[in-house]
Amino acid sequence: MMQASRARLFKEYKEVQREKSVDSDIKLSCDETNIFKWTAVIKGPTETPYQDGLFQLSVTVPEQYPLVPPLVRFVTKIFHPNVHFKTGEICLDILKTAWSPAWTLQSVCRAIIALMAHPEADSPLNCDCGNLLRSGDNRGYQSMARMYTRLAAMPNRANH
Predict the structure, then answer these.
(1) In Å, what is the CA distance from 151 to each residue of 17, 67, 116?
(2) What pLDDT sits at residue 43?
(3) Contact indicator for 72, 45 with CB cutoff of 8 Å
(4) In contact, 109 and 13? CB cutoff 8 Å
(5) How far is CA 40 from CA 6, 48, 105, 107, 128, in A?
(6) What is the pLDDT of residues 67-99, one digit of tens each?
(7) 136 φ, ψ to 5°?
(8) What ranges make up the beta strands (E) of the chain?
(9) pTM attached to this predicted model
(10) Alpha-carbon distance 77 to 26, whole Å?
(11) Residue 49, CA atoms < 13 Å, CB-side half-sphere
(12) Is 30 in the active site?
């Protein structure tokens, strides 16, 4: 079992190396000593409060992968209804019940970027954020999300 997941991860690693120039929104790298530990840096989608932010994700791949989904968390603080503010846990169906072995680590990152652009206020892990959206206070949500993006996801701007 572990051999199969290791072979799959090496294949994905090779694809990531090949596609580096193609997909500039996602930078995936694996731990040099452990193929089951990955880091992703994703760009905040344009026309969202996360625009211009760089968000780090930690990706822990179980030995049963790709039969079971990876554990993905935000390392960078983010104000989003589907991300737990303290732990970085992400509420996304493909990381839980809707997982399919057809998904790759790259496509999971793509799905997380899509979630950033289209928050689901009905299944919040961050209730404060979910409540803002559910009550129709989009401006409140946008300004909080932008503020945390500036504070946590734009390291170069912190000094200015």
Answers:
(1) 30, 37, 17
(2) 97
(3) no
(4) no
(5) 18, 20, 9, 12, 26
(6) 999 999 999 999 999 999 999 999 999 999 999
(7) 85, 10
(8) 26-31, 34-43, 54-60, 71-74
(9) 0.93
(10) 18
(11) 22
(12) no
